[in-house]
Specification:
α2 packs across α3 and α7 crosses α8. It is built from eleven helices and four strands, in the order ααααββααααββααα. The chain binds fe (iii) ion.
Length: 211
C-alpha cells in the first residue's frame, strides 16, 4: 500500500495490526514480489486508481443525479440503499446506505471512529488517512479543525454534523451543488464531485477548478 501524505500537517500513522485477510494478502504480495512476479509499484498504481478514480466515480454519478433530478434526490434522502442500487451500485460494504445532504446551514462529515467502515460500493477503497487514528479521533472532537487542515474553512455559523459509520450503516455526503453550474450536463456535473466531497472533507469543485 502506498503512503498518502496530505499537505495538512496530519501525522498519518497506520494501525499496526492486520486482519487475517490483510496478513494473507501481505504475505502473498511479499512472495510474489520476491519471485519477481509482480511489481509493488504496479500494485500501488492499481490501488491508487481504485482509491481515487474508479470507486468514487460511482458516488459522483449518484450525487450528480441528485443535483439534477429532485425525485431521485428525494428517494436518495428516504432510502439511499435502494436509490443507489437503482444505478447499479451495490454489494459488499454498501448494503445499508444513508445519504446526508449538505445545505447552506449544515455541513456533513463522515468518519468511522472504531475502524474504517466506508461505503465501498459508491466510493471504492478508503483513503489511508480515513483509516488513521488522528482522523478518526479528531473528526469527532474537532471537526472544524480537521476541515481546516483539508483546506476547508466554513463560516462559523455553519453547523457541522459528524456521522459515525458502522458496519451496519454507511454514509454518503451529498455536497452542495456549486454555483454557476446551471445548464451543465449530469455527466459534467459528476466531474465536479470529488471523493473527499462525498466524505465531507472536501467540497464539490467549481467548473473553473475542475478544468
Ligand atoms: Fe469501521
Amino acid at each position: 500500500m502506498s503512503e498518502h501524505h496530505h499537505a495538512d500537517g496530519f501525522d498519518h500513522h497506520h494501525d499496526n495490526h492486520f486482519t487475517a485477510m490483510e496478513a494473507r494478502v501481505k504475505a502473498l504480495e511479499t512472495v510474489l514480489t520476491e519471485k519477481g512476479l509482480i511489481d509493488p509499484a504496479a500494485i500501488d498504481a492499481i490501488v491508487e486508481t481504485y482509491e481515487t478514480k474508479v470507486g468514487p466515480r460511482n458516488g459522483a454519478r449518484v450525487v450528480a443525479k441528485a443535483w439534477v433530478d429532485p425525485d431521485f434526490a428525494e428517494w436518495l434522502k428516504r432510502d439511499a440503499t435502494a436509490a443507489i442500487e437503482s444505478l447499479g451500485f451495490t454489494g459488499r460494504q454498501g448494503e445499508h446506505m444513508r445519504a446526508v445532504f449538505n445545505t447552506p446551514d449544515t455541513h456533513n462529515l463522515v468518519v468511522c471512529t472504531l475502524c474504517s467502515c466506508y461505503p465501498w460500493a459508491v466510493l471504492g477503497l478508503p483513503p489511508v488517512w480515513y483509516k488513521a487514528p488522528p482522523y478518526r479521533s479528531r473528526a469527532v472532537i474537532d471537526p472544524r479543525g480537521v476541515l481546516a487542515e483539508f483546506g476547508i474553512d466554513l463560516p462559523a455559523e455553519k453547523r457541522i454534523r459528524v456521522w459515525d459509520s458502522t458496519a451496519e450503516l454507511r454514509y454518503l455526503v451529498v455536497p452542495e451543488r456549486p454555483h454557476g453550474t446551471e445548464g451543465i450536463s449530469e455527466e459534467k456535473l459528476a466531474d465536479l464531485v470529488t471523493r473527499d466531497s462525498m466524505i465531507g472533507t472536501g467540497l464539490a469543485l467549481s467548473p473553473e477548478a475542475a478544468r
